[in-house]
Amino acid sequence: MSSIDHDRMVAGQLYRADAADLARQRRQARQLTVQFNALATTEETKRAALLQQLFGAIGTGGYIEPNLRVDYGVNIHIGQNFYANYDPIMLDVAPITIGDNVLFGPRVSLLTPGHPLDADIRNSGVEYAQPITIGNNVWLGGEVTVLPGVTIGENTIVGAGSVVTKDLPDSVIAVGNPAHVLRPLTGADYDRWVQAKAEYDAAIK
Question: Is 6 a catalytic residue?
Answer without folding.
Answer: no
